[in-house]
């Protein structure tokens, strides 16, 4: 060993993170932070897309909405959606009640829907 340098197949200063394998954990942490940042940006973009008047959707299936904050509805109900969270959940209003609903349970309303 030469004064602070370890010689292997190539030389790294002893303080170099690559030497002891910590770089792998740092890389994993960075990748996770990047995934979270991208998800937050996509969610913010989806919320920005909902600016303006509520969007009307029609329920394709019954939804019990048993969890706190979820909006129950029946097939054929017309729901006003005010936010799209980008994670498969929408924020909607039906008969004066507001709550979350799954995006896959609804379709955009057409002029023929009442």
Explain the overall architecture.
The protein is an alpha+beta fold and 114 residues long. The chain has two domains: 44 residues; 57 residues, SH3 type barrels (Roll), CATH 2.30.30.40. The protein contains two helices and seven strands. The protein has a five-stranded antiparallel β-sheet with strand order 6-5-4-3-7. Strand 1 and strand 2 form a beta hairpin. The radius of gyration is 25 Å and the shape is elongated. The termini are far apart. The mean pLDDT is 78.
Q: Could you report the average pLDDT, rounded to the nearest whole number?
A: 78
CATH architecture of the largest domain: Roll
CATH topology of the largest domain: SH3 type barrels
The SSE order reads: EEHHEEEEE
């Amino acid at each position: 060993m030469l004064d602070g340098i370890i010689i292997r197949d190539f030389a790294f200063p002893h303080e170099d993170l690559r030497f002891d394998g910590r770089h792998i954990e740092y890389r994993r942490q960075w990748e996770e932070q990047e995934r979270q940042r991208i998800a937050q940006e996509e969610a913010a973009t989806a919320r920005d897309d909902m600016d303006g008047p509520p969007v009307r959707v029609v329920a394709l299936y019954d939804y019990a909405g048993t969890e706190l904050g979820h909006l129950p509805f029946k097939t054929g109900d017309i729901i006003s959606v005010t936010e799209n969270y980008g994670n498969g959940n929408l924020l909607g209003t039906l008969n004066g009640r507001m709550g979350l609903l799954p995006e896959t349970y609804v379709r955009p309303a057409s002029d023929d829907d009442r």
